[in-house]
Amino acid sequence: MKRKEFLQGLGMIGVGSLMATPLFKSGRKLVPNPLPPNCALIPTETAGPFPLDLTANGDFFRQDVREDRAGVQLNLKLKVTGAENCEPMPNVRVNIWHCDKDGLYSGYSQSNNQGQAGLTYLRGYQMTDANGEVEFITIFPGWYNGRICHIHFQCYVSSVYAAISQLTFPLDAKNAIYAANPAVYTKGADPLSFNSDNIFADGYAYQLATLTENTETGGYDAYLEVTIQGSGVTGLAELEPETGGLFKLGQNFPNPYRGTATIPFLLNDKAEVQLELFNLEGKKIATIRQGQLLAGEHQITLDMEQLGLPGGNYVYQLQATSSQGVFRQCKMMTAEQ
User: Contact 317/262 with Cβ under 8 angstroms?
Assistant: First the structure.
């Protein structure tokens, strides 16, 4: 199984999982938790001057996006909910990208961003779990002329719909981080206000992430709830064409699971079937071969103890091979905490 074939399981997008042990630790919250009232849609924003298509490179499927970048550790959690029913949306790919402490972006080299072509730092993607959540380990971003400190993100539900936006942080809390780490953030305080930023000047209430000190890492935890079009629990993922009409993959049950989980699927024609499990690093850790199955409803039960695997969050991928071709689809299975 090539890594690219794994990525194709979500229709030209990568998949990732969350750590079974949460990154977020108790600490002093610097601002109230700004949950959007009535599940208000996240404002749509530009992808900015430095986006990259991550889908062709499986290395971007990762939780820790720091690479060699210096900066205060930031554990970022995003929760994706559907506007139609305010419920969590699982199996949504979430991309993030942002500048480093000096205001530079990886992947580009131009007059205001020199020497960064071919680099990949501070970019990555994951897939939301049963709670609609993803977590990333990154650094607190710096800033650059004309833009306030911010992080770009994209919620890719399917080829039918994706939401692109940006998040930012409370001014005083953000500048306090810069002031407390002058050897790292040598440019000092961010001089812009929300009103002077060309993105957030028209509003930022739904894009203002919380900041909480993390007593274990010495850094901070950030959190934002993101509401996008669609209905929680299912979203629009069923519109994806990657199965070629050969099968429909269901969500494991129970979800979250403890010890064992059952994965349902429907074959519309006979096919050779196998199920693969991937860990949070994108490494395949198990393959369960079912052989040739007839059309109809089927189930595969996973016993993590028999598989020799610890309880945790995993991505499962169903592969079906028939005269029509080879088709794959992935979903996230979430461990009970």
Answer: no
